[in-house]
Automatic annotation (TrEMBL):
PANTHER family: D-3-PHOSPHOGLYCERATE DEHYDROGENASE (PTHR42938:SF22), FORMATE DEHYDROGENASE 1 (PTHR42938)
Official protein name in the record: D-3-phosphoglycerate dehydrogenase
Subunit structure: Homotetramer.
Keyword set, alphabetical order: Acetylation, Amino-acid biosynthesis, Chloroplast, NAD, Oxidoreductase, Phosphoprotein, Plastid, Serine biosynthesis, Transit peptide
SMART domains per UniProt: AdoHcyase_NAD (SM00997)
Domain ACT: from-to ranges: 523-595
Family annotation (NCBIfam families): PGDH (TIGR01327)
């Protein structure tokens, strides 16, 4: 049976101050008072107090404008060319790390950081040099700068394409060696030739546009690109095999992933037109370099122009680099003045934002929640974490939390309510009080899974106007015992429910009892026999030691039957006061919960 709150809900600005005699009985208290780890100030990622400047390690050359931006917020340590060991040593003193493609941010780096590293900024696009799984497990956000070097990379791709077709690099080397070989360096024309763009993302699209300007017939292969975007610039999307079979030139623009690793291999070179020419400004690892050497030797591939290599720098005696039909540059795709300035600003803004606790628009390993959604969800985010915190503190020691159900009641259509952030914050609330793990939006799902906690979500679709995103959030923990038996609902789970009222999160239900107490400070829940004087009695015990009662509410089944009193307190009551509350004769059980 659901119990309803009485009209005794009141907000109290000052402490109650009646005096009560001391007692020494301690048994109820030892069950009720919980000691919790220190609370962390990380609403979503990490927020630094105004006087505590974070430290950012910049491990590769970054444009001045980006450095200036960083220096306005953080201590900046520019240390280039660190060995892996030096990086691991330094990282434990850093809150953020900024790299380009030349630094391996390995699992060891995250492990060596001792939990301090909160953000890795990749000043560029490709994040294949960052161990994303390790970053996520350590709750470290990874952000990149995905747009500022697009044009630079595309221009370099076109530069390599044209230079290769006309033997510019080889002819240059020959003339500098005192030769004049006009017959040897006869090139091929681009106009009317078919170019296959492999990976029709930002760079691929810009390469396609430019190649069309050179009169080429451009096709593209990208399993994830929308056909209408390609059609809009006169590019036909084709299958992988068709691209290989019809192209005179192939330009690679896909990321290095387990699927694309060595995607150009013996088998696929065999599918190409004899005499094909290949450009790679994506990642060396998408080509099986040994297979390419063979294809060059056999004439399947007439020429290749490469900006990127499986190992950078490649070995000096690399047959591929030394091959006379290969033109090489040392990973220069993003290296223009303009791109480096842009990338530096883009990454500095992302890193500073993340250190301030904002959600980054360029997050690579966390859900991106638009700023306007975040603003609207803010009070619900606080509510979610506090409900998680309350629910887990109600679990009796020894009962492992395995199954948590979260219910969101809203008049919004499910598509219109992004609950990933709320789920992450409930997870944070559930896990942090019972462990030393730091939980944030990045590692919440991973941490829950690792601890064997299954969090299921359910929506209740309410009638009415969906002005506010949520009516209430309910957190239920199944198959556990509670140290406060009244928190167990009729269906047998620990249940807490909360709402946002005037922007402030409130606890509105515990078990089957309706209460109403704002979720600020801490909370004492008491089950008692409903009778006059209870509020005064408990309030007086707290008032005696100057503990400010901020909110009180009583939910009862019926007059003079069982009731649950919820008391919000600003300060932590002493053990002695809690013990005295437990000894009030009408109090059947009570629990003190830290928010
Ligand atoms: N050489 C350099 O200095 C630079 C290299 N790059 C590299 O270029 C690549 C592309 O960069 P953006 O265009 O900015 O990235 P993007 O993410 O905008 O585009 C990548 C595209 O590849 C597609 N793709 C993924 N798997 C694929 C597959 N198996 N087959 C075909 N397409 C696939 C994706 O759907 C996406 O459209 C990245 O690897 C990046 O690291 C980017 C900038 C500079
Ligand atoms: O942005 C990318 O993916 C690049 O490859 C550019 O690399 P870089 O920052 O020049 O080391």
């Amino acid at each position: 049976m659901a119990a309803s709150p009485t009209s005794l809900s009141l907000r109290k600005p000052s402490p109650l101050s009646l005096s009560w005699k001391n007692t020494t009985h301690f048994s109820a208290l030892s069950r009720a008072a919980v000691s919790l780890p220190r609370r962390r100030q990380n609403p979503i990622f990490i927020v630094f107090a105004m006087d505590a400047k974070p430290t950012v390690l910049v491990a590769e050359k970054l444009g001045e404008a980006g450095l200036d931006l960083l220096k306005g917020f953080a201590n900046v340590d520019c240390s280039y060319n660190l060995s892996p060991e030096e990086l691991c040593t330094k990282i434990s003193l850093c809150d953020a790390l900024i790299v380009r493609s030349g630094t391996k941010v390995s699992r060891e780096v995250f492990e060596s950081s001792g939990g301090r590293l909160k953000v890795v900024g990749r000043a560029g696009v490709g994040i294949d040099n960052v161990d994303l799984a390790a970053a996520t497990e350590h709750g470290c956000l990874v952000v990149n700068a995905p747009t500022a070097n697009t044009v630079a990379a595309a221009e370099h791709g076109i530069a390599l394409l044209t230079a290769m077709a006309r033997n510019v690099a080889q002819a240059d080397a020959s003339i500098k060696a005192g030769k004049w070989q006009r017959n040897k360096y006869v090139g091929v024309s681009l106009v009317g030739k078919t170019l296959a763009v492999m990976g029709f993302g930002k760079v691929g699209t810009e390469v396609a546009r430019r190649a069309k300007g050179l009169g080429m017939h451009v096709i593209a292969h990208d399993p994830y690109a929308p056909a209408d975007r390609a059609r809009a610039i006169g590019v036909e999307l084709v299958s992988f095999d068709e691209a290989l079979a019809t192209a005179d030139f192939i330009s690679l623009h896909m990321p290095l992933t387990p699927t694309t690793s060595k995607i150009l291999n013996d088998e696929n070179f065999a599918k190409m037109k004899k005499g094909v020419r290949i450009v790679n400004v994506a990642r060396g690892g998408v080509i099986d370099e040994e297979a390419l050497v063979k294809a060059l030797d056999s004439g399947i591939v007439a020429q290749a122009a490469l900006d990127v290599f499986t190992v950078e720098p490649p070995p000096k005696d690399s047959r591929l680099v030394q091959h006379e039909n290969v033109t090489v540059t040392p990973h220069l795709g993003a290296s223009t003045m303009e791109a480096q300035e842009g990338v530096a600003i883009e990454i500095a803004e992302a890193v500073v934002g993340a250190l301030k606790g904002e959600l980054a628009a360029t997050a690579v390993n966390a859900p991106m929640v638009p700023a306007e959604v975040l603003t609207e969800l803010k009070p619900y985010v606080v509510l979610a974490e506090k409900l998680g915190r309350l629910a887990v503190q109600l679990v009796a020691g020894g009962s492992g939390v395995k199954s948590v159900k979260v219910t969101y009641a809203s008049a919004r259509a499910p598509d219109d309510l992004d609950t990933r952030l709320l789920r992450a914050m409930i997870t944070k609330g559930l896990i942090e009080p019972i462990s030393s793990v730091f939980v944030n939006l990045v590692n919440a799902d991973f941490t829950a899974k690792q601890r064997g906690i299954r969090i299921s979500e359910e929506r209740i679709l309410l009638d009415g106007s969906p002005e506010s995103p949520l009516e209430f959030i309910q957190v239920q923990i199944a198959n556990v015992e509670s140290k406060f038996a009244s928190a167990i609902s009729d269906s047998g789970e620990i249940k807490v429910e909360g709402r946002v009222k005037d922007g402030v999160p409130h606890l509105t239900k515990v078990g089957s009892f309706e209460v109403d107490v704002s979720l600020e400070g801490s909370i004492i829940l008491c089950r008692q026999v409903d009778q006059p004087g209870m509020i005064g009695t408990v309030g007086s015990i707290l008032g005696e030691e100057n503990v400010n009662v901020s909110f009180m509410s009583v939910g009862r089944i019926a007059p003079r039957k069982q009731a649950v009193m919820a008391i919000g307190v600003d300060e932590q009551p002493s053990k002695e006061s809690l013990k005295r509350i437990g000894e009030v004769p009408a109090v059947e059980e009570f629990v003190y919960l830290k928010l």
